[in-house]
Amino acid sequence: MRGANLTESSLTGVILHNADLRYSDLGKANLSKADLRKANLWSADLRGANLREVDLSEAILISADLRHADLSGANLTDTNKHNAYLTGAKFCNTAMPDGSIANRDCYAAQQEITQ
Questions:
Q1: Helix spans in 7-51 (H)
Q2: How many other CB atoms sit within 10 Å of the CB of residue 100?
């Protein structure tokens, strides 16, 4: 699936464990609750993607574009995110690569849910 165009696709709960998604376009895709453990997302476009509760543990996110992606509840444990673009990404109860939990956007996420 390397270089796939999955823009705005609905991929809720999909299992893509070990998938090769290098250079793929997943912009604005709904990947909530997907299994992307050990997936290769090198230089993938995930701008504005719904990555809520996605398991990205041990994934390769080198140079991936995650600007404005929602990573609330995502598992990023042991990911390689070198040179990833994270401007505007949402982090609420997100397990970060070092095992810490990021709660930077929990208040904003709660506001969206209640409105």
A1: none
A2: 11
